[in-house]
């Protein structure tokens, strides 16, 4: 997808910092500038303790910066009430975690449907969309299986379907292949490549250089500071 100059960046950090109050206070992010355009695939790397989780929490609207501003799709998130921020997160951000976070006693399709809490449409419509999302990730044949009957790679596909079903602007992935063997990890990375080709904006946090190299751009965090690395695609 070519860059669209008429729409604002999906993610825009303007001087974003976060200081945990402590004591002692810890400045986990410091004066971060970042713009991620629609359809970009950005990876975020950094050693343990560098601020990756803090970055994820801010980008995912789970936490607000203590300094600077975060614009999501051009919306200054600092001006929103907690309820509005929660609503925006539910509609615009899909999360994928290392450990899947599926409900074990709900089927794949039910797990995906649970992501549509902000969707007021009838149950049948939601179920249809959940089945389509599972088909999109290659799990159309396992929609009624419980997570305990699925492999690690299949569970991550359910989690990706759940993240996609509300049609978010941003897919935020935290070590999405961290619990998977190499072959399964590659199949999940190929799925992320496909989603990127379809126009999804992806941010993938990882400590794995091979995963980091899949992005169009890599941002590194060190001691709470962001810096850009230019990678060949
Ligand atoms: P990473 O995810 O890269 O390991 P974090 O974002 O978790 O890094 O942490 C960045 C820094 O902030 C670290 O020094 C960490 O100890 C500190 N930190 C993280 N969470 C808290 C917290 N709730 N209170 C105080 N300090 C914290």
Descriptive overview:
This protein has 233 residues and is α/β, with parallel strands linked by helices. It has a single domain, classed as Rossmann fold (3-Layer(aba) Sandwich). It contains 7 helices and 10 strands. The protein has a 6-stranded mixed sheet, sandwiched between helices. The chain has a 4-stranded antiparallel sheet with strand order 2-1-4-5, covered by helices on one side. The structure holds adenosine-5'-diphosphate (ADP). Residues 20, 26, 28, 46, 48-54 line the site of adenosine-5'-diphosphate.
Summarize the structure.
This protein is α/β, with parallel strands linked by helices. The chain has helices at 52-59, 82-92, 108-113, 123-136, 152-164, 182-197, 209-212; strands spanning 11-20, 26-36, 41-45, 67-72, 75-76, 93-97, 170-174, 201-205, 217-222, 225-230.
Distance between the termini: 14 Å
Low-confidence stretches: none
Query: Given the C-alpha coordinates, what overall shape results?
Result: globular
What is the count of β-strands?
10
Please give the order of strands in the largest beta sheet.
6-7-8-3-9-10
Bound molecules: adenosine-5'-diphosphate
Element pattern in H and E: EEEHEEHEHHHEHEHEE
Task: Name the CATH superfamily classification.
Answer: P-loop containing nucleotide triphosphate hydrolases
Quick one: biggest sheet?
6 strands, mixed
Residue share in helix: 25-40%
**How many DSSP helices?**
7
Q: What value does the Rg take, in angstroms?
A: 18 Å
Q: What structural class do helix, strand and pairing data support?
A: alpha/beta
Mean pLDDT: 93
CATH class: Alpha Beta
What count of structural domains?
1
- The CATH topology is Rossmann fold
Assess the beta-strand content as a share of residues. 25-35%
CATH architecture: 3-Layer(aba) Sandwich
